[in-house]
Amino acid sequence: MSLMKKIGLVVLILLIGIQLIQPARNSSGQVPATDISKTVFIPGNVKSLLQTACNDCHSNNTNYPWYTNIQPMGWLLANHIKDGKADLNFNEFGSYSQRRQLSKLKSIASQVKDDEMPLTSYTMLHKNARLTKEQKLLIIDWALQAKDSLEQKKP
Amino acid sequence: MKTLIMIAVAAISLSACNRNNQSKETTATTTDTTQTEVQANTDLNSNNPVNNVVTSYLQLKNALANDNSKDAAAAGTEVQKAIEKADPASFSADQKKIFADVKDDAIEHAEHIAANANNIEHQREHFETLSKDLYDMVKVFGSVQTLYQTHCPMYNNNKGANWLSETKEIKNPYYGSKMSTCGEVKEEIK
Q1: Is residue B167 within 8 Å of B188, Cβ to Cβ?
Q2: Were both Cys, which of A1, A74, A91, B66 would link to A60 (CB 3.0–4.6 Å)?
Q3: How far is A108 from chain B (nearest CA, A)?
């Protein structure tokens, strides 16, 4: 067996080997009491935008495309989800302090406005997560309004 | 064939071991340094438990006013450390309450400022909310040095934004050299 063939075989075995290590799935399938919808009002159209463009990484329920069953794609995604949820988890929004809730709503608006979110690496693979200008405005306006009304509720 | 599989398995397990060891080592060193620094700080500023937070915040504010995002990032790290080190054990009930309210939010803003050394506008966005956190905090904790709550009416699409300063002289941290003198002192905090 030539050296190239041996190297090729090792790579192949490694690729098959890593398929056995599947990251845990991010899917609770529930709407907990701390969900953002229980803290602030979200109109239906905004809700569906958040669902398609944000929730994969910012909630406890990811909609997994088929290729995430193949490693290392699944690992990369698991990492993204971990980071995303650490910064903002819509399912745990209600557990944040009110101060942090206000900060999050402000950041949602500015991240979308500055085209930082959704991540380009994410929209490249998720065409339906690409937001039009109008859709972006819907999210921005909602976040800022939600922030204002939350601020008025302040004790 | 068998040997090849063995090699592959060995390689995977070896790399896994390495990773564990590394993370253990880093945690050990961080705890050590934190402990020594905490002692030094409490000795210097026993009169106001959040004085270090204020001092590093002011460094951050000055870095932004000088359009220096690298220094701002470094100061952001200092703000974060100072908040984490403040020990609520010695706080009054009111102080505990406001500190618990502010802590997570302020740490998060400081972290983002630290992580965005190449994006000063983003640092400024977080600085705005951090300034609010700090204001609410010093209103309860007081301050070793006199602070001036300063207001710039233009930032944020003319919604306005505030910052705390150690001087009455205006040096705008939201616009830097572009509009250095925009702003006015609204309140004096001692």
Answers
A1: no
A2: A91
A3: 12
